[in-house]
């Protein structure tokens, strides 16, 4: 049993010029203070206390000497020219050593800090110190320090040693046996003289009388409980669970691929192969010849046509269908810059009713190379973006470990399991799903790509006119983006805070943008945005996100400028989409908005007639209303979490466009095959479950660290993962299913000629 002594002193004197000085001398240390005890706060404010109580550094009996009496000298002095009354009381602490799984209640104040001893039991390697209080204020600091004298237990020095964190109503610190060679430590509780560090009111500045003092009674009732943390076996179970859960997706994919292979083999043996088998892979070696149906769109490709429009090359003169070799003469500009082709574009793309054959007229090899740039560019972006991010978060974690300041990172401290130098390994491990499922999606796309190439090499040139054109570059880019989202989310959770939250959202912007581009590319393969312009747009968005983090909290001018950019960008993009990119901007970009105003006036006001492109008009009107609503909301409420605000804009636009696409698909009498239908249902269900856990807020860097800890909750899965970890698991699966929806959505059109597939 360790004995500890507490010294209580009291003086009625408030004379700061002649304080009473107390010096306590022990065998291994000296402790001194004055009464009135003075604390300094913000703006050099001072707070004085006449009652002071300090715990002396305890002495532990050794096996050599055994129990012995402690000799303590208390010296009292003052330079006052008059007598000062004081009170001195020395008591022995009966409950100085804390016990495992046993709550202990006590009271502390700025001038009467408390600290207690805890020794690790033999079978416990890690414990969690849980501190709770019914009162929010006064602000408290909880510190864990090694058994070294003196103990730093005052507001101005508690941060000098050990691990510490501020608290209002709740705090939790995980302590490992390996960090304390003596297998014991002090738990120190310090009450701060002011509350602004915990989110309280900030004291007003004082001009002139900077030495003004207060006699404040700032006491706080606290309860501390030390409970064992999880064992090493739980770490192993959590790792197995994480990997096996997502490896089951690999098994499911193999089963689906095997079933598909058996089905194709049976059809082949029965001689019932259709031009394509409905899964996006061509399987027939015989072209189906069919004349262009009566009433089909002008500009649709007709095998029997020998003049007008773009003619198909003969099989003898055309390169092999599956050839994708690079050639210096195969430039898209060879096609696009010819005046005749420009005229043809204007005629074709401004028709009232467009079919896929009208927007898939470019050479397949050239367009495929164009979309492969998305894949190679995103790899370059990922490397250059991720390396400095990893370096930065390693620095953050190092600072936390060296300084012991746990207010730097916003963890869920009630479920933060350390491993090595990492403070919250569970938050990092839960991101493995994004990387595993992103790699699986790349394998699925690669399989489709390989089988498509093989099928193209075996087929006649005319059978290229069936189904949606197969360009896989954007799908590869989406898979890389999903993997990088896992990497950067893990980096963010190394030390989550206000400064690095954009790491967690940057590739979410790119995922949402790439999904919209892929959805638009499906029926507009010839006029989709290039990789350079798309990634340049993403770069602008990320720059705005960074500016929003810096200036978006209170600066009204930023929100005005951002809202204007948002609205003008929506109008410009709407005009581009409405006319399929076929209008001249002229020398000034204001021509876009002049053209938009002219369309609105002529179609909706002057003639009061039906718009020329009704479906597109409905989509763009709804889209603009949604985006203008976001702009107004941001301008009025100015949300502090600007990165999530921009992400919400992207997600809402993606969901709106996907809903429009599916509705138009069903309206055009197209069908949903079982696999895409299953993926749509799975996407909706998993997203709903994921969002439920996402909104279970466990911490918030929009508040002070102490206020954020009020939201901390215990683990809910395997005693290792919290709600946000479950969000990571489910969101990875939801994104994977969302990608499969885009990959398989139009598999039913593989047996349909392109001059019969409508564009919307």
From TrEMBL:
It is a multi-pass membrane protein. Residues 272-336 are annotated as: Disordered. GO terms for molecular function: double-stranded RNA binding; RNA transmembrane transporter activity. The keyword ATP-binding does not apply. Residues 304-314 have a biased composition (Low complexity). It is found in: Membrane. The chain crosses the membrane at residues 238-262, 374-394, 428-446, 474-495, 501-520, 532-551, 557-579, 617-636, 642-663, 675-695, 726-745. Residues 281-295 have a biased composition (Polar residues). GO terms for cellular component: lysosome; plasma membrane. Pfam families: SID-1_RNA_chan. Keywords: Glycoprotein, Membrane, Signal, Transmembrane, Transmembrane helix. The keyword Ion transport does not apply. Residues 327-336 have a biased composition (Acidic residues). Belongs to the SID1 family. PANTHER family: SID1 TRANSMEMBRANE FAMILY MEMBER 1 (PTHR12185:SF15), SID1 TRANSMEMBRANE FAMILY MEMEBER (PTHR12185). This is SIDT1 protein.
